[in-house]
Amino acid sequence: MTVSIVLFTADLRLHDHPPLRAAHEAAQVIPLFVRDRGVTGAGFAAPNRLAFLADCLRDLDAGLRRRGGRLVIRSGDVVEEVCRVATETDADEVHMAADVSGYAHRREQRLRRALEAEGRRLHVHETVISAVPPGAVAPASSDHFAVFTPYFRHWTGVRLREPVPAPRAVRVLDGIGSERLPDRGGLSGLSEGLATGGEEAGRARMTSWLRTGIASYEDRHDDLAGDATSRFSPHLHFGTLSPVELVHRARKAGGPGAEAFVRQLAWRDFHRQVLAARPAAATADYRTKHDRWRSEESAREDIEAWRNGRTGFPVVDAAMRQLRYEGWMHNRGRLLTASFLAKTLYVDWRVGARHFLELLVDGDVANNQLNWQWMAGTGTDSRPNRVLNPVTQAKRYDPDGAYVRRWVPELAGLAAPSVHEPWKLRGLDRAAIDDYPDPVVGLSDGLARFKRARGLD
Ligand SMILES: Cc1cc2nc3c(=O)[nH]c(=O)nc-3n(C[C@H](O)[C@H](O)[C@H](O)COP(=O)(O)OP(=O)(O)OC[C@H]3O[C@@H](n4cnc5c(N)ncnc54)[C@H](O)[C@@H]3O)c2cc1C
User: Which domain, by its residues, includes 54?
Assistant: First the structure.
């Protein structure tokens, strides 16, 4: 009788789950999640993500129980815990999803060695967390694509596997000790408007968005106030939605909205294949511009203003306040707040990336660090010195000011265009918003400093 452990990591679902499907062929399955000391120890366990994770684990356990099984939870070093469960249950094999960070690679190697030393096998499944795995497409001259457009061309040509259905029943070995499921109730420092995690919530969102949102995605994805993107990112981060299934379903829906949406999913795989090939890009410049960023000490007031949504640039402040309140920010907001910090304020992108990771419910090493690098001009952007002007961005992507008014109550009484440039108001109009700060920097001064620093002046 074969006993198989399924080690869940960033794939907390039952639908379209190849490791579970493969293990299911065995007579007995042990669905296992290890609260990994390596992740918490690295400071990666932010309260918002811990809360979402708790929802996901509860939901996964409930889904398994509906199928006659349950989730086994352990805490500690992931390799030690998997080996312990394998010994307790005399498991023959372990199935898990491939992942891309340096940490994930080391975890896989350590686990393989430890299991093989005990005569057990590790099966690592691609296309669980990525739709197209790193290395599946690569240029002739390199191990990864450094430019998105040719990557996307090749990515589009890859034939994806068909999604696999959720198992009807999961037979879990009796008598295995498990810790209690975590609960978001005990956590402090959560964003008030944090989304609910779990596969059930993810699939409900997928169904409704494919029905009502995807068709207008191309036209509306940059509309800050319209909030018309899928909001799948936390579900993709924790794997409560499958990227393979999403690509299939979007292609089936068809049309320009679906095409634009699939392109964004390809961006996710693009960053994952960059990180897989260059794990150091999580913290080091991918393509250095030899920046000598302002020191955190000398830029401290500017950094604090940025973090707290008090830069005096309404659209920047609105986005930063959305991040704090929801643990999530619209992509256009992420772009313009990152440009503002790294270029207009000339602060090291790592300072911004760290703050995002403290709050983002979808905070993800590949997507966060490489998008930050893209915007800082140290990553894969072919126009590394572009600077997004927050006023121009605001007028284009929040034309009537609704997004700013939603998140910056001090300005709720203003109409566009004043709501985007309150410093231009005079007299009583100005006095009415005296609790809103003046701009921390003149935009032309910020631009001149950046050009000087990059030798572009
Ligand atoms: C500075 C900065 C930091 C970011 N940090 C993260 C992060 O930590 N985690 C994260 O998931 N995304 C990050 N993004 C990418 C993007 O902003 C979010 O994925 C997106 O806003 C999530 O909203 P959505 O699910 O509604 O996206 P949609 O527009 O509906 O897109 C669907 C999915 O495509 C993927 N996607 C969309 N845009 C991008 C992109 N630019 N790069 C990679 N994948 C993308 C996401 O998985 C997203 O869920 C960051 C972007 C920037 C500019």
Answer: 3-129
Does residue 315 share a domain with residue 430? yes
Please indicate, yes or no, if residue 14 is contained in any of the structural domains: yes
User: Quick check: 81 and 115 in contact, CB under 8 A?
Assistant: no
Identify the domain boundary among 105, 129, 153: 129
What's the half-sphere exposure (Cβ side, CA atoms, 13 Å) at 346?
23
Residue 119 near residue 53, CB atoms below 8 Å: no
> Please, what is the angle between helix 390-397 and helix 314-326, to 10°?
70
Q: Looking at the chain, how many residues does it have? A: 457
| Residues within 6 Å of ligand 1 by CB | 221, 229-233, 236-237, 264-265, 267-268, 271, 331, 334-335, 338, 356, 360, 362-364, 367-368, 371-372, 375
Count of the separate structural domains present in the chain: 3
- What CATH number should be reported for the domain holding residue 443? 1.10.579.10
d(C-alpha 189, C-alpha 191), whole Å: 7
What residue has token string 């911004």?
352
And the tokens for 333?
Answer: 């907001």
Ligand 1 closest atom vs CA 270: 43
Phi, psi of 64, rounded to the nearest 5 degrees: -65, -40
- Mean pLDDT, consecutive 10-residue segments, the chain of 457 residues? 93 98 86 88 83 98 97 97 96 96 94 97 98 95 95 97 95 92 93 98 97 96 97 98 98 97 98 96 96 97 98 98 98 98 98 97 96 97 96 98 98 96 93 94 98 94
Domain boundary among 262, 277, 292: 277
Choosing from 237, 240, 268, 272 the residue with most ligand 1 atoms within 8 A of its CB, the one to mutate for a pocket test is 268
Distance of CA 195 to the CA centre of its chain: 14
Residues 73, 136: one domain? Answer: no
